[in-house]
Design brief:
261 residues, BirA Bifunctional Protein, domain 2, 5-stranded antiparallel sheet, 7-stranded mixed sheet, 2 domains
């Protein structure tokens, strides 16, 4: 737990060991590390977390660096049995888990479709607290999915990459035990993943709708080729697609989703 003497203590490896978590001091990208382990045949639920990520990868190949011990930056290896056509639900499942864990720790977060974890700033503006990246890995040992989560915990405003981002410390003014938060997140991830594994998107859709803050708002969807779709976001269907003005759009076909006002 953070203290005045050590506001950014290291993760507790002993508390994390029962959850299959490996803690590394530095990493370019935890997704890249876990993907390599997947190709080597590592089992599902391998988790690698780094204290300092220097070349994290986000959606649309964005790159970012996290200050030492200021974030939760980790990747999890999954080996889904469901068909590849259903895998687009995986980052949404991770988003449900992240929001649930944060709320458990007193952070009133929500999900901007498909999987950006958001909180309200002091002026009511929606700010990004965490990002999630899911990648498919093919290997002789079978196909796997790597789910990467980067969650801002104690960053100051000066340490954040953009003005539309925030951290738990900035959002709540309270210290956070990163080890306890990671345990909560992994526990909830396994629960949501098991539900999805048993029943697909239809099984977890209700959980997603409960935490999605995009629904009920007028949005502008930017599509490849410069096209846009504008209208009210009314639903997320069983395939995980956002329904805007009656038209479903998949995350892989969208550049941006932004409010119109």
């Amino acid at each position: 737990m953070p203290t005045a003497a050590d506001p950014r203590p290291p993760l507790d490896s002993e508390r994390l060991a029962p959850y299959g978590v490996e803690v590394v001091a530095n990493a370019g990208s935890t997704n890249a590390l876990v993907a390599e382990r997947a190709r080597e045949g590592a089992p599902a639920w391998l988790v690698v977390v780094t204290e300092h990520q220097t070349a994290g990868r986000g959606r649309l190949d964005r790159v970012w660096e996290t200050p030492d011990r200021a974030a939760l930056t980790f990747s999890t290896l999954l080996r889904p049995a469901r068909s590849g056509a259903e895998w687009p639900w995986l980052p949404l499942v991770a988003g449900i888990a992240a929001v649930g864990a944060l709320r458990e720790h007193g952070v009133q977060a929500g999900l901007k479709w498909p999987n950006d974890v958001m909180v309200a700033g002091a002026d009511g503006q929606s700010l990004k607290l965490a990002g999630i990246l899911a990648e498919r890995v093919e290997s002789p040992h079978g196909n796997a999915a790597v789910i990467g989560i980067g969650l801002n915990v104690s960053q100051t405003a000066e340490e954040l990459p953009v003005g539309t981002a925030t951290s738990i410390a900035l959002a709540t003014g309270a210290p956070t035990d990163r080890t306890a938060l990671l345990v909560s997140l992994l526990t909830r991830l396994r629960q949501e993943y098991d539900a999805w594994s048993a029943g697909g998107g239809a099984r977890v859709r209700g959980d997603y709708l409960e935490v999605c803050v995009t629904l009920g708002h007028e949005v502008r969807v930017s599509l490849p080729g410069g096209e846009t779709l504008t209208g009210e976001a009314t639903d997320v269907d069983d395939a995980g697609r956002l329904v805007v003005a009656g038209t479903p759009v998949a995350a892989g076909d969208v550049l941006h989703v932004r409010p119109t006002r």
